[in-house]
């Protein structure tokens, strides 16, 4: 389930349909290269907590979640545009 909305996340829908998927530019190295980052909010921390107890994240997203927690920062993929 998507932690913010209580509905399946996109990756879960693809997996349920038997499709292979991979997130775009969402690994720790990509995060580190973002030009701007902001501190994690309490809501961000709660979402990360929920992601850790739901079905396991794919390895790339689990690594990103660990990086966000360690650095206590977040970024947006729009930073690449």
Radius of gyration (CA) equals 13 Å
Strand order of the largest sheet: 1-2
Helix content: 40-55%
N- to C-terminal distance: 28 Å
Shape: globular
**Helix count, DSSP H or I runs of 4 or more residues:** 4
Q: Which percent band covers the strand fraction?
A: under 5%
Q: How many beta-strand runs?
A: 2
Largest sheet: 2 strands, antiparallel
Mean pLDDT: 81
* Sheet/helix structural class: mainly alpha
Instruction: Give the topology string: H per helix, E per strand.
Output: HHEHHE
Give start-end ranges of low-pLDDT stretches: none
What does this protein structure show overall?
With 81 residues, this protein is mainly alpha-helical. It has helices at residues 10-16, 28-32, 42-53, 59-71, and strands at 38-39, 73-74. The chain has a two-stranded antiparallel sheet with strand order 1-2. The model has no long low-confidence stretch (mean pLDDT 81).
List the helices and strands and how they pair.
Blueprint: H1 10-16, H2 28-32, E1 38-39, H3 42-53, H4 59-71, E2 73-74
Antiparallel strand pairs: 1-2
Compose a concise summary of this entry.
With 81 residues, the chain is mostly helical. The chain contains 4 helices and 2 strands; from the N terminus they run ααβααβ. The chain has a two-stranded antiparallel sheet.
Q: Descriptors for this entry?
A:
81 residues, mainly alpha, two-stranded antiparallel sheet, 2 strands
